[in-house]
Design a protein that fits this description.
This protein is α/β, with parallel strands linked by helices. It contains ten helices and eleven strands. Strands 3-4-2-1-5-6-11-10-7-8-9 form an eleven-stranded mixed sheet, with helices on both faces. α4 links the parallel β5 and β6. The chain is globular, with a radius of gyration of 20 Å.
């Protein structure tokens, strides 16, 4: 976990995103690289009244955009400095956290492409009624990088990875996510495998996962619970909170994205409502 990418989106949850990234970086001596995520060109009619985006409008927008990027860079650097994270890329292995701002031109593909070089990508949870953080950024990190993501909740967490709940459902996606999460699991004080009976697909039991973790030197327990009247995602979050978790490990989209968009699903619920950091991979 030596390299962490943080897409910087102007939003009410930016402090939570940066704070969550700091927790991870300070735990592993990681270098945080942040890049400004360009907002979409606003659909504003030009002065000619015909809704045409004129060159003058584009130039004005680009000037404002450069100013926003400069302000974001300053905010990022000030935030990291206040938390004792040194500036600059160490260029090699380090035991202390560091941070660097990456200035790049606007590109919708940057997060998806650049993210393949990182061990972890920290993104904000999309908030209902807010334009940022965006699902586009989260999905680019989740589906295009081949890397795990860490989803920061709207409010900054007080701790990260001290008590970890694994939302186990027997799936390939969650098994892969556990493998990615091993650095966190090996340092956790408590690990609980939470299996919601109604969410299980054919695969190992939660107790068998706990046994697997013990072979890797990770002391883990397992609990089984029924969803009852709760949705599967709600049950996973509830049971994780009952265990005192400050981080949830969950495989993303065991069912297809389209099915979850239409019918809902555990991943969709968690992305919409989690108040805990979620470590996720697909």
């Amino acid at each position: 976990m030596k390299a962490i990418l943080v897409p910087f989106e102007e939003s009410d949850v930016v402090d939570s995103v940066l704070g969550t990234a700091c927790f991870a970086a300070q735990r592993f001596g990681s270098c945080i690289e942040s890049v400004y995520v360009q907002p979409a060109l606003p659909a504003i009619a030009s002065a000619d009244g015909f809704g045409v985006v004129t060159p003058a409008f584009v130039e004005k927008y680009e000037q404002e955009d450069r100013a926003r990027i400069s302000q974001a860079e300053q905010y990022f650097n000030d935030f990291m400095r206040a938390r004792g994270v040194s500036g600059g890329d160490p260029g090699g292995p380090s035991e202390t956290a560091s941070a660097v701002w990456q200035n790049v031109g606007p590109s919708d593909d940057y997060v998806g492409h650049r993210g393949r070089l990182f061990d972890l990508i920290v993104v904000g949870r999309p908030v209902h009624g807010a334009t940022t953080p965006t699902m586009h950024t989260l999905e680019a990190a989740l589906f295009e990088t081949g890397r795990p993501i860490l989803i920061a909740p709207p409010s900054a967490p007080a701790t990260l990875g001290e008590t970890i709940a694994i939302a186990w459902n027997g799936s390939t996606e969650t098994a892969r996510t556990i493998a990615f999460a091993m650095p966190f699991l090996q340092q956790a004080k408590k690990v609980v495998v939470v299996a919601i009976e109604d969410a299980m697909v054919p695969g190992p039991t939660g107790a068998e996962v706990a046994q697997h973790l013990s072979r890797n030197g990770i002391e883990a327990s397992a609990i089984d619970s029924a969803a009852g009247k709760r949705s599967l995602g709600e049950a996973m979050l509830d049971e994780s909170a009952k265990q005192g978790a400050d981080m949830v490990v969950k495989g993303a989209y065991t069912n297809s994205r389209l099915r979850q968009m239409i019918f809902g699903g555990a991943t969709s619920h968690i992305l919409a409502y989690t108040e805990l950091p979620v470590f996720m991979a697909h």
